[in-house]
């Protein structure tokens, strides 16, 4: 099962692989922005297994693990470079050596230098989708980046570009102005239907890349027992946008919503995660979920959603009736 990456015409697997977690720690003082310690050998085995199972779309960012995610992805898939589509992002500064997060940088100069650094870490000479990572940047600032992005397309360093933003107004302005803009990445799951962003993507032939399709792991079903994540895990933090977890444990409000639709999502033999991905596949033909994976087992479960395909029309309606009516 494949989907098209917006107006670029690039074909990708209907379910991709999110690579934030395999980056490992990233911090700013006591604040955590990674998912804790990782085993690179396990990460590489996971990425290769995902590819064996049909995944061709891999999404990362320059600052995931202070560049470590990109390096691991490059090591894992280097020999398969022409068979995969790699997306990465820029906008957040960091120190590769100390793994210390720095301030945002929306300048043209940082776009250029960050792109070259990403190419080095990924061990490739082109990136398929290059995404602006600062979702709250002012629209005029984003508009000023488009000419340079177009230059990078012409130079062959990138094939297309996009913006990771949850704001429909920002998304629409960017896709209208950028001839080679082909995707908007945004928070989207069965627990949070980003209807306005999806509408923008459908209207302007953009891929709707679903970030957080499993609600940062809550839709795995593993957090109903009250377990907590580790201190170095971003989900232990009290950021305003950390809605699915509270003090490192699953939000009771969202766990209750999951229970309300569990039977529908797990019908036909699907796991809860596979049903949540099936909902996204049914939501729009533009939607491409990128569930994060850390282990081979994660990859096998998430990519297994492809064989089940989208929820049926009836199943999709049931979920909507239970959650939003």
Describe the structure.
The chain is 38% helix and 18% strand. The chain has 12 helices and 16 strands. The protein has helices spanning 40-52, 68-77, 108-122, 139-143, 146-155, 168-177, 195-203, 252-265, 272-283, 296-303, 305-308, 313-324, and strands spanning 2-4, 11-13, 17-18, 27-28, 31-32, 57-59, 85-90, 92-95, 100-104, 129-132, 161-164, 181-187, 207-211, 245-246, 249-250, 287-289. The chain has an 8-stranded parallel sheet. The chain has a two-stranded antiparallel ribbon with strand order 1-2. It is globular, with a radius of gyration of 18 Å.
Structural topology:
Elements: E1 2-4, E2 11-13, E3 17-18, E4 27-28, E5 31-32, H1 40-52, E6 57-59, H2 68-77, E7 85-90, E8 92-95, E9 100-104, H3 108-122, E10 129-132, H4 139-143, H5 146-155, E11 161-164, H6 168-177, E12 181-187, H7 195-203, E13 207-211, E14 245-246, E15 249-250, H8 252-265, H9 272-283, E16 287-289, H10 296-303, H11 305-308, H12 313-324
Parallel strand pairs: 3-6, 6-7, 7-10, 10-11, 11-12, 12-13, 13-16
Antiparallel strand pairs: 1-2, 4-5, 8-9, 14-15
Helix pairs in contact: 1-2, 1-10, 2-3, 8-12
């Amino acid at each position: 099962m494949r989907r098209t990456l917006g107006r670029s015409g690039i074909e990708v697997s209907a379910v991709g692989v999110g690579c934030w977690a395999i980056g490992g720690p990233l911090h700013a003082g006591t604040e955590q922005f990674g998912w804790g310690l990782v085993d690179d050998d396990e990460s590489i085995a996971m990425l290769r297994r995902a590819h064996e199972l049909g995944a061709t779309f891999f999404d990362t960012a320059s600052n995931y693990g202070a560049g470590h995610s990109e390096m691991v992805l490059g090591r894992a898939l280097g020999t398969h470079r022409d068979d995969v589509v790699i997306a990465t992002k820029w906008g957040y500064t960091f120190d590769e050596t100390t793994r210390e997060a720095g301030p945002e940088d929306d300048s043209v100069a940082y776009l250029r230098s960050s792109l070259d650094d990403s190419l080095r870490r990924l061990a490739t000479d082109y990136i398929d989708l290059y995404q602006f990572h600062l979702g709250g940047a002012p629209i005029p600032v984003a508009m000023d980046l488009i000419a340079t992005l177009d230059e990078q397309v012409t130079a062959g360093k990138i094939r297309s570009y996009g913006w990771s933003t949850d704001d429909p107004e920002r998304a629409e302005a960017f896709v209208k102005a950028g001839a080679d803009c082909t995707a908007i990445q945004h928070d989207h799951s069965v627990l949070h239907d980003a209807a306005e962003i999806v509408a923008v993507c459908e209207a302007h032939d953009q891929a709707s890349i679903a970030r957080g399709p499993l609600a940062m792991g809550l839709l795995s079903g593993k957090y109903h027992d009250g377990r907590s994540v580790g201190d170095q895990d971003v989900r232990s933090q009290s950021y305003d946008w950390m809605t699915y977890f509270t003090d490192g444990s699953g939000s009771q409000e969202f766990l209750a919503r999951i229970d309300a639709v569990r039977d529908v999502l797990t019908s036909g033999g699907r796991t809860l995660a596979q049903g949540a991905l099936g909902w996204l596949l049914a939501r729009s033909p533009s939607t491409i979920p990128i569930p994060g994976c850390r282990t081979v087992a994660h990859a096998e479960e998430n990519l297994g959603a492809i064989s089940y395909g989208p929820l049926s029309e009836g199943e999709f309606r049931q979920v909507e009736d239970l959650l939003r009516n």
